Each structure stands twice: as structure tokens, then as C-alpha cells.
Amino acid sequence: MLQIDKSNLLIKKTLTERIFPAPDAQLKSLDRIISDFDFTNYHVSTLEDRQLILLSVYLQCWNDLTRYGVSEYLKLKYQKFGEFLTIVDDTEAGYNFSFVLDTGALASQSDEIKQELIEELALLKRHAIASAFEKAFSRYDQLAEQFKDQDTYAEEIKGELKNEEVLVIKYRGEDECIYIKPSFDRVTVIFSTIFKDETDKIFGKVFLQEFVDARKRSVQTAPQVMFTQKEPPLDIKNAVSKRQDDDNKGYVTFVLFPRHLTKGERRDNCISYIQFFRNYFHYHIKCAKAYMHTRMRHRVRGFLKVLNRAKPENVDDEGKAIDNRKTASGRKFDVGRV
Q1: What domain count does the chain have?
Q2: Terminus of the chain with fewer CB atoms < 10 Å: N or C?
Q3: Degrees, nearest 5: CA angle 11-36-83
Q4: What percent of the chain clears pLDDT 70, i.e. is strictly above it?
Q5: Contacting residues for 212 by C-beta, under 8 A, at least 6 apart
Q6: Helices (H), the chain
Q7: Residue 256 forms beta bridges with which residues?
Q8: How confident is the model at residue 319 (pLDDT cuts 50, 70, 90)?
Q9: 197 or 253: which carries more pLDDT confidence?
Q10: If you ran DSSP here, which 8-state letter would residue 322 be given?
Q11: Domain final residue, candidates 109, 127, 145
């Protein structure tokens, strides 16, 4: 299956053309708005000094991320580029976070640093959402250290873990959220999603069953995957907003074990892949439906050809065949004439 790229390709292309210009290219003004999944918008524009580029981002779930320290996390993530990348305190109107990139100061840097900066800025949305995951994983580290020598089956410890805070990211409004609940031996990530069509629910169940079967067959180190419809899992029962249940609403649960939460590249990859699961999930549902419709149309065209070949010859009232063949000049054949 095709995996959706975690970086924004248009941001990458825009910055690459600006930072690695053609030899004879003139320094032009820039004003580009880019829309991404989950109602995310970017604005890339030049200031009065055309060597300064303003990059702003808007995320629908920014207010949720603010509670989990997104601004501090982004400042820490981009501080190594501080010589030529500045975080703007006075954020651009209509956006949540803004950078100013000094391409003049960047010109003296090596191509490796320039390319690394482009890659990191193209991952801006990924890093913003990752702030909540990093907080949950840090809490998991604390709980694992706290309860490593204790009896976790004790009732008081069970009650304490049950009341652990659930981190909520409303990345597509109230109806579709990400719920993250850390514990001492796992981190549970739950996606709520809406299936707009009845067939989407069927395809979704098939895809999720494949996740389960793949884990049983060969990928035994993969996270545990569960699916419930309409009713939220017990882990997030208190965190789900008190809205009317929707028959088209489903909850996909991933259980991340310590092997997935190892600090370093493995943890970063886990965050990158799991936070874009909803887009990946619905993208492949739509692709599967489009493929099936294409195959159905192909089969219908084949059936029509068979039916056209099976049409009987024209006959008169007495059941005799009428010969409608004509010569090139348009004259009919005279049947029976030698």
C-alpha cells in the first residue's frame, strides 16, 4: 500500500526554488497559500526585503496543542537554525505560528544545512502535532520509572492509572479527534473518525481486519489494533464530548508497547506514522472504491460487447432472415440470383 508522505511537498518545492535558485534568476516577490490535509493552511510570502521569507501555519487543533506546549516544542526543534530562522512573536493574522527565514544569511551555509532546513520546515505540521505525542511519551517514561518495582495489580495503583489524563487533539473538529492515554507499560492512541458513506464502513472494517491478520501472520511486533463502532472505548469514555452518538462514527485503537517507544529514531518514526493514520486510512478507502468502480465499468463494457454479438439477425413476419447486406455503391444483394 502507498504511504502518504509526512512532509508537505509544496512547501519543500517552494523553499527549494528560493534557496537553490537558477544562476540567472532574479529575486522576485513571493506570495503563496498552500492547503494541506486536516484543514491546515500555510502562507509563504516575502517581506519588504525580498531576502526575508515569512512562513506561517494554521492548524485547526492549535488551541489543543497549546495546552501541550507546542510553541516551546517548535522553538526547541528549530533552535539549531537560529542564525537565519527567527520565530515571530507577532504572528501573522489568521495563522497560529510564524517564522522569518533570512535567505541572505543562509546563502553562506553548506548545501547540507540548506537541505536539512527545507526538510524540517516541510515537516512543520508533523512537528506541531508531535508535541502532544512527545508529552504523552514523556509521561509514559515517568510512569514506567515510577511503577517498575511496584505491584501494578494493586487496587490503589489501578485506580491511579485509570485516572491518568487523556490528551485530546481535535484535529478535524469535535467529531474526529486523537486521544492519547499513557500508562506505565503502554501508550494507547485512539482515533475517532466519521464514515460519510455506508460502504466506507465496510471497506474500513476490511482494512482494519487486514491490520489484525498481518500482525498474527508475520508482523508480530506491530501495535495491537482494535475497532469499535459508535460507542467509544472505555479508556476515553470520560474524555469524549457529550454529543449524540453517530452510527457512522468509529474508533480505531492502537496500543503502543515499550518496543515502539524506544527513544530515538524508532520513537520519532512511531510519531510520524501514527499521527497521519486517519489520512492514510481514508485515502486507501477512496482508492479501493475507485479501483472497484473502474473494474466494474470494464466488466460492463465486456458484457455489452457480448450482448451486441449475440443479437439475432433481422427476420420478417414469416421468420425468414432479411439480408440487409449492401455493396460498396449502396446496392442490395439480390438473394437467389446467380
Answers
A1: 2
A2: C
A3: 35
A4: 87
A5: 225
A6: 9-19, 62-66, 70-77, 103-106, 111-122, 124-146, 155-162, 198-217, 265-275, 277-309
A7: 187
A8: low
A9: 253
A10: P
A11: 127
